[in-house]
Amino acid sequence: MARIRKGISYRRLERPYTRISKYKKKAYIKANPAKKIVRFNMGDSKKKFEYTLFLKARHGLQIRDNALESARQSSNRILEALGPGSYFMRVRVYPFHILRENPLATGAGADRFSTGMQKSFGKPIGNAAQVQANQTIVEVSVNEQHLGVAKEALTRVTHKIPCSCIIEVQKNI
Q: Is 51 inside any structural domain?
């Protein structure tokens, strides 16, 4: 299996080229790769908490679904130590955007069965969430005694995603 490319290859936020063709099968992406993120809501969703912490992106970018899943797992591992009903975490972005790649053959004899960039549209290789500047990526709700642990969990998320982020604390009334 081929390794995935670095996240910097897909980090730039731009509208993808959409092929416009008179033939319907060449005008859209036929396959959608499976999303790697498993769950978006963790913890107790029905309980009311005193504080909500928001992790917001400073700049607009794309975050791949495997980075979101890695961030979710590492932060949820910290929050699970608090107990089953003492937190609620939600991943607020969804990886709708399909990433494409035009694979080019390399090596001896590659010129005989490689079309180069002619009619290149690319095959779907993964998914990404498009995040705008100041958009909330993850939110965590806890009570006052667990505020430090929640900040540590959100700090762990910032190490897994490819952008600088701000943690905002809001008191629920």
A: yes
